[in-house]
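Record format v2
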Amino acid sequence: MGKKLNIYNLAEIGVDVSASAVHRKFGTLTKAQNAIMLPNEGEGAIEKRGGLTPLGAALAGGQVWGINNVAINLLQTKRLWVAYENTTVAGATWAYTADGTNWTNSSTLGACFQQQRRNAAYKSVYAPGRGAAIRNRMLYPSNDYIIYATAGHAAPPLRQFDGTNDYQHGQVPFNQQIQIAAGLTETNVEAVGDIIKYQGLYYFCSLDDTATRRGTVWSMNPYDGQMIRIGNPFAGATFTVAPESALGPPWKLAPWNSRLWATTNQYAGTSACGVFRIRPGIDGEWVKDAQFATCAGTGLLTCLGYLWATFYFEAGTTPKCIYQRTSDGVWTARDTYVHAGAGGSFKPFFFDNKIFYFRSLQNLVPTQCLIRASADGITFADDLTDANFFTLTAQHLDDAKIGGSYEFLGNLYVVVIGTEPTAPGLILKRVPGNSPGTWSVVKTSTAGFTGYAAVITTLE
Amino acid sequence: MPYYLVQGGTSLYKVSSTGTATAISIPSTVTLRSRRVRFAAIAKNVVMVNSPSRSLWIDEDLTVRTHTLRPPSFAPILDGTAGGTLSGIFKVRVSFYLADAEGNIINESPLGPASDANPVIASKWLRCRGVPKSNETISGRRLYRTTTGPGEVYFPWFDIENNLEMTGVDDLSDAALILLPAPLNLVNPPGTMPGEECELITSYKNRIFLRGTQLVDRVFYSEDGSFYQFSGSNFFDVPPLNQDERGMTAFAARRDELGLLKRDVCWKLVGSSPDNWSLIKFAENIGCVSQDTVVVIRDVAYWLGEDGIYTWGPDGVVSITRERVHPWFTTDETFNRAAFDVAFAGWNPLLDTYDIFLPATGGTTINRWLSYSTTRKTWMGPHKTGAFTPSFSYAIEDTNDQLVPIICGTDGTLNQMNQTVGTDNGTAIDFDVDLAHLHMDAPDDLKFFGELAVRARVEAAGTLTITPYVGDLTATAQPAITMDLTTGRKRARILGIGRFLKLNFRNAENAQKLRLFGCEIPFHTIGRD
């Protein structure tokens, strides 16, 4: 009698090469090359496996030897943000770049032009502060206040920008000595100076009172906004009330050898200034490490293993120089030069394993306005002359025009504020290598920049 | 968007889930060699071993550094210098450290040797001369000192935030020292110093576990939550010791048990912390021949042993090959068993299969793979592709965080599996299936096999070739039958008379899909001849 064997269980047993040919069950496979069992409306059947499609191009290196076993999801994109001097650039307050070449305007952040930029008392030594960012959060001073001693004055606000959202993070507290002297009248500090980050905290200077040359150094917790005064406050040499340190307000900050360092500035290069140090959380007061006569502190930098300080001299035929301090307390003048009249060195920065600083002779000898650089901290050479600077920017180089300097994507970016009131702000780029350096303009604005800038990372 | 680290040739790449590859720089003192790379991760820090000439660490910003920092090899010299306020006798030890952009220490070497005590000082700076410098890229050096006496406990003192200066001074008082003492017995694990590299690595219970190339029976583990701190006492040996040159061959990290596999014995580490860890032998005469075949799927570990594939889960150790595909792993007819140690495996989450890649008989090139359905408990394969030679398999996340299985090639490609196209990037997929001999429960009787009917899914085009074998077990192939796949059904010719019937189904057309439902074979028994 005829029978029929129906085999619809091809996916049930799969391959069986262990049993003998006589003992295998019906529906068993002995070979299933490129055959799969796919549950998508195919349960019970077998089918040709799906194709293999390259994911992107082949790696140039060749054979794949392995892949890490955890997806990396928090890759962050770095962006360099630079603040405009005012809001006239199509309503934008800041501009950013992710590649150093293409810039995008943004009005998300607050304007950070500060009143003190116009304060004649600060003269040309006013150095726009640096921005600083701690892990996707940039701290910067905003312009949303009225400066002290003007009707309706308020405390300078500090804002944070996290790459997406911008919000006020705190207001700088008043100066205790000024408030005591004012009695019941509300006082406020005038402006925010330098901002740096160090061991997970922000440290910044407040410029508390122009008249008495007071100032304070603060730490700020990036997460809760708490501000704590670091050490004792500062005041001008003739205004000091205990426990204030003399020699003017703190102007620039730098961390070095487990200490926070500050250089002071009495707004005049005929006064003295000092370099102070403190161990935050350990020391109660600042220790004066060195005092420099007839000059104002303009810059501090840690690099090449040393602490570096720059100074501005307002008058006199004085050796104008950048100083180096070693761990055992020795200050040594480096790259000394002599010039009759105002001039000095400013805003040192580190890039490409070299120390750089700006030299400015206050409109007297433009040809001696330079950016100098040294790989060993001893032998300096011109990296960008005023003539070349003028060729690039149609402006002469002087310290008031230079804002922050930031390393970004392996290149150096220098924010040029622009000669007020109409000269455009610029952003210069210096690539590594070469001496003199290779400089170019990567952005020209219809208005100037404040100098505030920072590299922050954003979650993408 | 998810990114992965991929070693292609002797370069390291960041590969996005869409396949965009970007080369990543590695330290100039380290080279990647043409060998399997292995990774482990703790808190966004990935450690990379085996292929680098020195173990590497990749942070969440994809900055590549050496896994650990070598410690200072000598101690500074202490004396006093005028100006400070410190008094007493002290000793100092130095470490090298790396700090992130915020100044937080993200990696630190073990401490160097202790200095000699300084000549007693009174109200001075304590000065360290000859502070050791590192020949690696570091952020600075951290100096630890004792309290006066000198004591034996070292406290963080101050940092020299560079790798240049060899002199440091400070007068921090004993009372102002940070109270948390320095761990004195940190050591560098294998993969740090020349001569001992790291070959195996895994992460388990928030620690890194690794095995070096010298002490092959010894497992080192990191401090809790740290990827770089290894205490000098953080190791254990996996017995038997010195039994062979391979030592421990693989880690298998399950949820609550860490498998420590040798070639012929399996141990597991159980317990919640080193205080209550214990080693338990859970299998004897069973082992693992290749770390790269270990895959853990839903808390069940799969691996290749000398005689087949084993699973280790809640039901203990089970061979999943002995019942049906034992000859694949115990004879040389299908695969080159001598090259099992180069095998690798992956998980195909779409089919829920454990896929193991092996070299066919006669060669060492990995050119076949088998797939085991973890739900049906069935084997399919051996599969192959003519498009490239497989070199690695893994499942990566796409832009929607969905897992996509991939097979990588020796040509540098990452190929997504289970694509709806019936082609391997232009190369035909050779579907070749043998149905086992059919004897209708009467192997000794002659049967008449009538007209074969085959059912398949209707396709837009294509031909299925069906080759019948009718006769005895050694019957030769009959003329092939072709089935037009646009019809979905084929009623073929009468197959003939024989004791056995075997059918082969084949399609090797490019870009051709195929789903085979089954077949029907009318027959009647003729009887014994």
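Chain A touches chain B through 94 residues (CB under 8 Å).
The mean pLDDT of chain A is 85.
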